[in-house]
């Protein structure tokens, strides 16, 4: 082969190699959690799992014809707890619920065999205000008309499904209800929490129950509430958002029965 032709082939090979290298560098980014992350354009090909199939709910099931649509429980968890706390919850008390359950975690979370919702644009940082509020928005958009009650729970709580069902059937979900262990913080925290003298919040630890009507009023304003946080306390900010847009505070009269029968 003439020398000129060999040089032309060599130059063409170098140009092709450089072009391919630049493309791969731009389109494939390494991540601390995954070895390769595709270009944003490739992300458009991703299809969200069907919300009903995630929780095993048939399209024809409604609050009128199913005994497992009384309550939807959203459990906030993190990637590092999926195979420990979340798995334990799912294998124990989740099986006795008069409803359905799903676990809400960061966008990169994966856990085969669990009803998991990896929330887009959410990480596992603490405090989990964004995770909590976007979980409520997901509940409303995907399941708002399919359950009477919605529960926000942590992954280290234990719920007695029989007692929970008995309790919820005695309360009208058509009215705005916000039920849990009411609190106002310690005396030293009062000013920092920015609560009015007549305001409280449902403490997140034992779990929080929200009626369908409360969720309907609050969910459309989730993004507003996220932009107007006064503190780093997720449960305080949820209570503030509920008070503003649903017009109710945590129901003091239910705090003892909820704590003793549902959470521990």
From TrEMBL:
GO terms for cellular component: membrane. It comes from Papilio machaon. GO terms for molecular function: glucuronosyl-N-acetylgalactosaminyl-proteoglycan 4-beta-N-acetylgalactosaminyltransferase activity. InterPro entries: CS_glycosyltransferase (IPR051227), Fringe-like_glycosylTrfase (IPR003378). The keyword Nucleus does not apply. The keyword Phosphoprotein does not apply. This is Chondroitin sulfate synthase 1. It is a single-pass type II membrane protein. Its main location: membrane. It holds the Pfam family Fringe. Keywords: Glycosyltransferase, Membrane, Signal-anchor, Transferase, Transmembrane, Transmembrane helix. Residues 69-252 form the Fringe-like glycosyltransferase domain. It is found in: Membrane.
């Amino acid at each position: 082969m003439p020398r000129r032709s060999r040089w032309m082939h060599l130059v063409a090979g170098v140009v092709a190699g450089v072009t391919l290298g630049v493309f791969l560098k731009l389109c494939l980014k390494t991540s601390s959690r995954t070895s390769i992350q595709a270009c944003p354009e490739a992300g458009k090909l991703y299809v969200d799992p069907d919300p009903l199939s995630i929780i095993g709910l048939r399209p024809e099931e409604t609050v009128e014809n199913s005994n497992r649509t009384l309550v939807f429980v959203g459990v906030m968890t993190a990637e590092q707890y999926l195979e420990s706390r979340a798995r334990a919850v799912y294998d124990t008390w989740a099986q006795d619920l008069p409803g359905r359950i799903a676990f809400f975690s960061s966008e990169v979370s994966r856990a085969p065999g669990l009803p998991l919702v990896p929330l887009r644009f959410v990480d596992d940082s603490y405090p989990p205000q964004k995770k909590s509020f976007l979980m409520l928005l997901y509940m409303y958009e995907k399941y708002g008309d399919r359950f009477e009650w919605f529960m926000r729970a942590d992954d280290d709580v234990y719920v007695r499904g029989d007692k929970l069902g008995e309790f919820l059937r005695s309360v009208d979900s058509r009215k705005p209800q916000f039920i849990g262990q009411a609190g106002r913080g310690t005396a030293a925290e009062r000013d920092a929490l920015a609560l009015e003298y007549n305001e409280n919040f449902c403490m997140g630890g034992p779990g929080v129950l929200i009626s369908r009507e409360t969720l309907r009023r609050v969910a459309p304003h989730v993004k507003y509430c996220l932009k107007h946080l006064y503190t780093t306390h997720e449960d305080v900010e949820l209570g503030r958002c509920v008070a503003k847009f649903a017009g109710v505070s945590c129901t003091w009269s239910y705090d003892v029965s909820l704590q003793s029968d549902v959470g521990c």
